[in-house]
Amino acid sequence: MTSNCKLNLRQYELDNQEWNISVNLRDMLKIFKHATLFFSCNTPSISTVIPAMDHIDAHIATVAQDMDLPVSIRAALAIGKKTLNRYYNKTDHLEVYSIAMVLQPRHKLQYFKTAGWEDNWIETAQTIVRKEFD
Question: Which one, out of 37, 66, 82, 103, has a CA that is 20 to 30 A from the CA of 56?
Answer without folding.
Answer: 103
